[in-house]
Specification:
By secondary structure, this protein is of the alpha/beta class. It has 8 helices and 7 strands. Strands 1, 2, 3, 4, 5, 6 and 7 form a 7-stranded parallel β-sheet that branches.
């Protein structure tokens, strides 16, 4: 096992048409790709991390409370993993090569066990998929870069609210972080 798939914030609130902070159709278009990637990584003996945003309503200590509408609130259906990806997650939920973690910051590494779990398994390459390209994927990629991981980002696996930000982030990943971008 040398690589891991990190699925970032692929939840109902970020993806569904009626989600609280949805990236809408561009995010929905990722569903089959992400679900198939989870299955492939597990079946190939690689590792999968599902990192899902967690908030409490009106949290005065969290900076996002002032920046975004309430989303991914603990105990709500908005936190559920979206669509076919959610079904695939449930199928492999108990698998030893799948790890679910709550995250409270943009990066899947910030305040979580992700780095520890990857290093325990001698993983040196991370594939990033999910939403939002220019926020949580960006911060996760920056953390991965600073921690010394090789980064792969399939364009078919990421989306944003903002196409300009999405394109900027892909360029930044490739030209500033040395990430391999798999173009559609």
């Amino acid at each position: 096992m040398k690589k891991a798939l990190i699925v970032v914030d692929y939840s109902t609130d970020f993806v569904a048409t009626d989600g609280a902070l949805t990236a809408g159709e561009p995010a929905q278009a990722l569903d089959n790709y992400i679900a198939d990637s989870i299955k492939t990584f597990i079946e190939d003996g690689d590792y999968v991390v599902i990192a899902n945003d967690l908030h409490t309503l009106d949290d005065p200590y969290h900076p996002e409370t002032k920046l975004f509408p309430p989303h991914n609130i603990k105990g709500t259906s908005g936190r559920e993993i979206y669509g076919k990806t959610g079904d695939t997650f449930k199928q492999f939920k108990q698998h030893e090569n799948l790890f679910f973690t709550d995250k409270r910051r943009y990066s899947a590494f910030a305040g979580t066990e992700v780095d520890l779990r990857l290093r325990e398994r001698s993983i040196n390459e991370v594939w990033l998929v999910g939403v939002v390209t220019d926020i949580c994927i960006l911060h996760t990629a920056m953390s991965a870069y600073n921690l010394g991981y090789n980064i792969v980002i399939p364009e078919a696996g990421v989306a944003s609210f903002n196409q300009t930000g999405h394109e900027w982030a892909l360029d930044h990943f490739e030209n500033s972080l040395g990430a391999k971008i798999i173009r559609n």
